[in-house]
Amino acid sequence: MDQIRKDFSTVTIALMVVALAINIVVGTIIFQLKVPFVYLDSIGTILVGLLAGPLAGLVTGILSNLLWGLLGNPGYVPYAPVAGVIGLMAGIFGSMGWFKSWWKWLLGGLITGLIAALLSAPITAYVYGGVTGAGTDLIVGMFRATGASIMEAALGQGLITDLIDKTLSFLVVWLIVKALPTTLLTRFSRAQNVLEMGDIDLENILDQ
User: Fold this and answer.
1) What is the total count of domains within the chain?
2) What is the pLDDT of residue 69?
3) pLDDT tens digits for 50-61?
4) CATH number of the domain bearing residue 166
5) Residues 47, 19: contact at Cβ < 8 Å?
6) Separation CA 91–CA 103 (nearest Å)
7) Mean pLDDT by 10 residues, the chain (208 residues)
């Protein structure tokens, strides 16, 4: 319970608010432009998972899609559990120390993309019939033109799009965190995910 309270501190809540805005604004732009290979609507979720833990990432992902639905894009609501899993995975990989190795962190993005593809394909196929209104519909249509079933097309689209999108999103988060000052990062409960212990100890000494 102590760790949960730390993970959902005031600074984490503030970060979650910013993360929701990032997800919705960037995701809406990509949706409106009909970009076929990326969503970029989970950058904020991944950031929270990394800096505040798996549970905070899970909550941020779910809230992001639910809020997006309330703001006028209900098509994202059924994908809320998938968005939550993305934040959960980012938190898990961060806790495993993968962020400190760029290739492991990008591998985490690939794994997250694979899981997201497997989870989202049935939603795309059976809730929306393969047509969500996003640019990824083009890829679904290409698979359907080859004779693939709706489920096969949705899965094929997900394996292409989610692997690219989540790896790119993990990379963007990597660049964001690397650009943030150590004094800010140490305010988060999972600072050890992104900083070496020497950096954390130094900042604690300076804060005393």
Assistant:
1) 1
2) 94
3) 999 999 999 999
4) 1.10.1760.20
5) yes
6) 17
7) 89 97 96 92 98 98 97 93 98 97 97 98 96 92 95 97 97 97 95 80 46
- Phi and psi at residue 18, in whole multiples of 5°? -65, -40
Token representation of residue 145 = 């033109």
Structure tokens at 202: 């130094």
**Where do we find the tokens 């950096």?**
199
**CA 14 – CA 188 distance, rounded (Å):** 11
Digit-coded pLDDT (tens) for 68-117? 999 988 999 999 999 999 999 999 999 999 999 999 999 999 999 999 99
Q: Look at the chain and count its residues.
A: 208
Cα–Cα distance, 64 to 69 (Å, whole number): 9
Q: What share of the chain is helix, strand, coil (3-state, %, to 5)?
A: 80, 0, 20
Tokens 């993968």, residue located? 98
